Amino acid sequence: MFDAKAFFELINPNKNIVVAYSGGGDSSALLHFCHELKQQGLFSGKLSAIHVNHALSKNADSWEKHCQKFCIERDIALHCKSIEVNSKNSGLESAARQGRFKVFKEMLESDDQLLLAHHADDVAETILFRLFRGTGLDGLQGPVRERQLGNGIMIRPWLDYPKSYLNDYLLANNIQFITDESNFADDQDRNFIRNELLSLASTRWPKASTQIQQTSMLVSKHKKVHDLLIDKQFGSAISGITIQRDLLMNLDADTCGEVIRYWIKQNNVAMPNKKILNEILKAFINSQPSSKTQVHWSRADNDQKRVFLSFYDGDLVINKK
Question: Please, are residues 272 and 298 in contact by the beta-carbon 8 Å criterion?
Fold first, then answer.
């Protein structure tokens, strides 16, 4: 059902595997799959799991106990961590995610591989969510398959599989899992997309989620080439926190905007949306900026550093808040 060969094209069998384990169906399938591979002697690293208790449900403690039981039965080391979710600045879902990733980042040791059970349906959900909010090419790439996280690396090995595959695996292996009641609350945007929109779309286009996921992969490939070409043409001129205004003034408007976006992205701060990018072009390119000229922005979920651009000695300057 799941291809072990494809799995180990992403996962190093000689390094530790840590599964982000909520106790839900998706992460239960992934942890069980990893345990089976370990039992077959297909990887030599240690297998463990991390469970984050968000304390948002009256059932949170019983979910943690379920995870402990699941892991004890299979002799899997489980690390449980309770957090307090503060949704004041970024919304409940985003705050919970930030809390989880903070725990993951703190707990990962050197070369640990943290596996997340996101699948093709999650990709489709994310793409639609970003489309409805307004997004550019970066947003259409969907969740990244692999990235550095603290001392380790985070990997999503099952992005190519639809959720139906995970459900079939759970059924075939008689795996018990918990169900988070909040997943059915359609007042949350992602839940509405998952429970209503994608569910309806799949009745007419059964492979809708997989098709959206494949489109996301194509966008990622095109974006990779796009970024390589920009880097090849402009190189060190856009590698730091400053960029020469004269360089930008010699470009047409569309190319100028793309170079600015790429430069900002390289500095690992919040990306500007279309409205902010137009403000940047108006303030620094189409007008004569001064030392007092500034454009500020941030991400709605505060998932990256807030930032503002200023002007100094002929350069645009990125300033982190």
Answer: no
